[in-house]
Amino acid sequence: YCGISTDPERRLKEHNESNKKGAKYTRSRRPVRLMFTQECESRSDALKKEAAFKKLSRDQKLKYMCEYIEEQMMLQISNAPQMKEVDDSDKAINKDSKPND
After folding, report:
1. Dihedral sign (CA 32, 71, 64, 66)
2. pLDDT tens sequence across 46-72
3. Is the pTM of this model over 0.90?
4. Which residues are CB-contacts of 12 (< 8 A; sequence separation ≥ 6)?
5. Which of 8, 13, 61, 76 has the fewest CB atoms found within 10 Å of its own CB?
6. What is the largest CA-CA distance in the chain?
């Protein structure tokens, strides 16, 4: 099942708990799990992406989701603060200093 929503968590709850608001398709397939979300610029953009996604085979959909998630993770990593490298001189122990007891 694929659909659009402004609040995916609310929509998931509707699919799992409501007989009137959840999609007919999901009523006999409960519990429904949210597998993937993607933010879009506008409702029009979301509808276009949904239509294109629905035309893909299952394998193509899984590949698309994995590639999208991997791309997002790489963006997060590249935007994360860089860790300082520690060189051997930082690890050196002063022989004159006393160990902490």
Report:
1. negative
2. 999 999 999 999 999 999 999 999 999
3. no
4. 32, 34
5. 76
6. 77
